[in-house]
Specification:
The protein is of the alpha+beta class and 182 residues long. The chain is built from 6 helices and 10 strands; from the N terminus they run E-H-E-E-H-E-H-E-E-H-E-E-H-E-H-E. The chain has 2 domains: 71 residues, BMC (bacterial microcompartment) domain (Alpha-Beta Plaits); 105 residues, BMC (bacterial microcompartment) domain (Alpha-Beta Plaits). It has a 4-stranded antiparallel β-sheet, with helices on both faces. Strands 7-8-6-9 form a 4-stranded antiparallel β-sheet.
Length: 182
Amino acid sequence: MSTLGLVETKSIAAGVRVADMMMKRAGVDLVKASTICSGRYMIQVSGNREEVKTSVEAARESGAILAGTFVISNISPEVLAALKHAAPVSRNNALAVIECKTATAGIAAADAAVKESGVALPKLVTGQGIMGKSYFVLAGELTAVEAGTSAAKQILGKKLIEAVVIPSPDFSVMNALIKVER
């Protein structure tokens, strides 16, 4: 997958209609389309950049009320892996927890953070069970975690709720949040 398109609608019914429009407008693959909390619907499509852009543009033109749209080229493998499951990290890492107002913004910010700083992305939670918000965890050397957090903040702008960096997290706190290698 070279490019990922993300659309988040504020209505489930409208989201299904938008997903159909997106698929019919361009030659993309539907990665995932599902409800998230707060009655929102998130659509993820992949393919070549131009097709994904065309598909996401169809959503923007749909008349549906959107919570967010993103087109992410060269999506990082870490983001794709984190969307599927949490990955263990070293106990000695610094951590950042970045909380976002929407699911799609969190994915875009996590991708920017990983690309900018080379940090690990052990956890990415998008929308389900947290009122449609998202959050992700960065792990690595302190300077890299700080750089990744800064990159995420730039992408998020007003969609940032809070970002914290913890230089040496307590093992029990870290282990409660993510898997930690012993």
